[in-house]
Amino acid sequence: MDYIIETLKNLAGKTAFANIGFGNVFMILVACGFLYLAIKKGYEPLLLIPISFGMLLVNLYPPIMEEGGLLSYFFLLDEWAILPSLIFMGVGAMTDFGPLIANPKSFLLGAAAQIGIFAAYLMAIVFGFNGKAAAAISIIGGADGPTSIFLASKLGQTDLMGPIAVAAYSYMSLVPIIQPPIMKLLTTKEEREIKMEQLRPVSKLEKILFPIIVTIVVVLLLPDTAPLLGMLMLGNLFRECGVVKQLQETASNALMYIVVILLGTSVGATTSAEKFLKLDTLGIVALGLIAFAVGTAAGVLFGKLMCKATHGKVNPLIGSAGVSAVPMAARVSQKVGAEADPTNFLLMHAMGPNVAGVIGTAVAAGVFMSIFGI
Questions:
Q1: DSSP 43
Q2: CA distances from 246 to 177, 204, 218, 255 (A)
Q3: Is the pLDDT of residue 26 over 70?
Q4: Nearest Cα to 374, choosing from 135, 118, 163?
Q5: What DSSP character marks residue 254?
Q6: Distance (Å, rounded) from C-alpha 193 to C-alpha 210?
Q7: Which residues have a Cβ under 8 Å from the Cβ of 341 and sit 6 or more positions away?
Q8: Could you tell me which residues come within 8 angstroms of residue 3 by beta carbon, excluding any fewer than 6 positions away?
Q9: Cys-Cys with 235: which of 81, 93, 142, 352 at CB 3.0–4.6 Å?
């Protein structure tokens, strides 16, 4: 009988019930909520499902993220900046930079949206974070998960990487919820109804030269951006040169989705209750939201300024796409514009600031690395 009782005790001790606390239960419920948003509501399921499932796994079985655990090996690829760089290659291979080339003024809208990053940096300093931690947190404002992970790694903020990455990817996924109220608050119905002229055709030569020239110019000025910006432009060159179709298809499909799985689950697995439910984490999430909101507002307000300067030829809504969430932010600009006028088509116009935002966020990361001598 003693043997049976001891055996049952050992079995009970090995179940997850023996090690789950209130915090773990809370995080499991959060994970299930994210899964609901991804599956039922369709909020960027490619991001939210692996992140949510990683969150679920680590709170059911914490050793999966400890040294020697499966997801700890995935996370090493985040710390080494391998997965973020590969994600950028995939984004470049998937994205048409034509709208940005056709309308170079879009660079200004993308730059304006980066104001949220530097505003959050100053706020994080005020809230007591050190300079490197503040810089890593502030990049959340660009709604760019890979860049957030990349910068946190380069600045040695691995302890904060989990909350930073989860906040960045969560805001990327929740762009359709967060941005529209800000966009509508800052624009009039008449402004939202503005129809923009069709973009000029962009030649094949322009599309081939663009990634090469941008790489040369930006990397010469900010060499630390080479891993991210270089991979972004390499992926786009695969797309536009027309002679490496197999590489373009691999980078934008198979490789991209493999990397999303590895990165998403490892990021989600950084959210164990013990590490995630802290006051600093709440501060990071709040600062990230403020940065994202300020970036969206700055893009829209600069769009309004361009609208005035061009006598009503620019719809201010496309300024909100200056954050780095490609192509979600551009789709939101299209959606809000179509709500004001169903015949309005802003998607291609919004893709210009959206691509500029990706480049701008990478540049902002390079600026921070230069400031701290990385």
A1: S
A2: 36, 19, 28, 12
A3: yes
A4: 135
A5: I
A6: 32
A7: 192, 193, 195
A8: none
A9: 93
The Cα 93–Cα 60 span in angstroms is 37
Residue 167 — very low, low, confident or very high, per pLDDT cuts 50/70/90? Answer: confident
Cα 227 from Cα 214, distance rounded (Å): 14
Predicted confidence at residue 229, as pLDDT, reads 94
Residue 12 above 60 pLDDT?
no
Q: What pLDDT does 169 receive?
A: 80
Contact criterion met (CB below 8 Å) for 371 and 334? no
Helices (H) and strands (E) in the chain, counts: 21, 0
3-class DSSP assignment, residue 313:
coil
Non-local CB neighbours of 192 within 8 Å, separated by 6+ positions: 183, 184, 315, 316, 317, 336, 337, 339, 340, 341
Place of tokens 């990053």: 117
Q: Return the amino acid letter for 252.
A: S
What distance in Å separates the CA atoms of residue 141 and residue 291, rounded to the nearest whole number? 4
| CA–CA dist 229, 334 (Å, integer) | 26
Q: Are 361 and 117 in contact (CB under 8 A)?
A: yes
In Å, how far are 115, 124, 163 from 280, measured between CA atoms?
A: 23, 11, 9
Residues 6+ apart with CB under 8 A from 114: 141, 142, 295, 322, 357, 360, 361, 363, 364
CA distance 240 to 208: 6
Peptide bond into 84 cis (omega under 30): no
Residue the block writes with tokens 């030569």 = 205
Largest CA distance in the chain: 89
Residue type, 372: F
Ordered DSSP codes for 140-196: GGGT-HHHHHHHHHHTT-HHHHHHHHHHHHHHHHTHHHHHHHHHHHHS-HHHHTPPP
